[in-house]
Design a protein that fits this description.
elongated, Pumilio_RNA-bd_rpt, 343 residues, Pumilio_RNA-bd, 26 helices, mainly alpha
């Protein structure tokens, strides 16, 4: 019934939805009929608020020939499509759906425009999808365009995502220069509202030597960084992903300061989470040390919203019954696991 009206229907909210649903179960003949009609209007449909979904459906459910033909319609227009609200979705779907040679043809059109795309609210999604779907060897031009730009991109709301994708999907040879630049700017990135995510990413997924380098740059500054809105998240990740030896040193750093550091941290809106994490991940012997350091401050902790979190944590590890923290005093003797042997 829709013959000769496919294009106008594709540009209508309900028409587009109807066509999308039918395409999932259409016969080969029906698909080809629809395809023949949309082909001449393909570029306009790609940038249309409803039409783009019909094109995307063909990248999902079309025949290999139909996908190839549509991908050819994209050629020569990759940059404007990547920067356009609806076109960027079509490019992403195409990259997921076509063979490597065609992916690489599409990607090549971005050469020379990478930074423009990365800093664009639509284009950054296309660059991320390239990094996720395309053979890293075909992406060397992206790596090269980032040379000297890693700090700027890591502190950018879209750039920080692209840097994380590179760290996930590119080869060690490609990520090495990126990591080298990150290490030059660790101190600023830890405290940046976007850069802190890049540093956290390395702490979670990076190689031991990169993690170690980041952790050593936090050492000596745990107290200050823990009280910082963004850096405190990085300190938590350091404590979580450190080796046992590194973790012991980080915890020792706040225990060693005549109790004051720990007291300041427990009352702080950000640092209290670092203390909680330390209690969670420390070895039993070090957890006891933390407990002894915290015990004299229990009464003052009750007065602070953040202090209450710490009390709850300690009850979890050291008390048989919640709420019995009030009885923690000299009469308990040295803190240890409950006598029934259940920790």
């Amino acid at each position: 019934d829709l013959a000769n009206h496919i294009v106008e229907f594709s540009q209508d909210q309900h028409g587009s939805r109807f066509i999308q649903q039918k395409l999932e179960r259409a016969s080969a003949t029906e698909k080809q009929m629809v395809f023949n009609e949309i082909l001449s209007a393909a570029y306009n449909l790609m940038t249309d608020v409803f039409g783009n979904y019909v094109i995307q459906k063909f990248f999902e459910f079309g025949t290999p020939e139909q996908k190839t033909t549509l991908a050819q319609k994209v050629r020569g227009h990759v940059l404007p499509l990547a920067l356009q609200m609806y076109g960027c979705r079509v490019i992403q779907k195409a990259l997921e759906s076509i063979p490597p040679e065609q992916q690489q043809e599409i990607v090549r059109e971005l050469d020379g425009h990478v930074l423009k795309c990365v800093k664009d609210q639509n284009g950054n999604h296309v660059v991320q999808k390239c990094i996720e779907c395309v053979d890293p060897n075909a992406l060397q031009f992206i790596i090269q365009s980032f040379s000297g730009q890693v700090y700027t991109l890591s502190t950018h709301p879209y750039g920080c995502r692209v840097i994380q994708r590179i760290l996930e999907h590119c080869t060690p040879e490609q990520t090495a220069p990126i990591l080298a630049e990150l290490h030059q700017h660790t101190d600023q990135l830890i405290q940046d509202q976007f850069g802190n995510y890049v540093i956290q990413h390395v702490l979670e997924h990076g190689k031991p030597e990169d993690k170690g380098q980041l952790i050593s740059s936090v050492r000596g500054k745990v107290l200050a960084l823990s009280q910082h809105k963004f850096a405190s998240n990085v300190v938590e990740k350091c404590v979580t992903h450190a080796t046992r030896a590194e973790r012991a040193l980080l915890i020792e750093e706040v225990c060693g300061f005549n109790d004051n550091a720990l007291h300041v941290m427990m009352k702080d809106q950000y640092a209290n989470y670092v203390v909680q994490k330390m209690i969670d991940v420390s070895e039993p012997t070090q957890r006891k040390v933390l407990m002894h350091k915290i015990r004299p401050h229990l009464n003052s902790l009750r007065k602070y919203t953040y202090g209450k979190h710490i009390i709850a944590k300690l009850e979890k590890y050291f008390m048989k019954t919640p709420g019995s923290m009030g009885s923690i005093g000299g009469e308990l003797g040295p803190i240890g696991p409950p006598t029934n042997g259940v920790l």
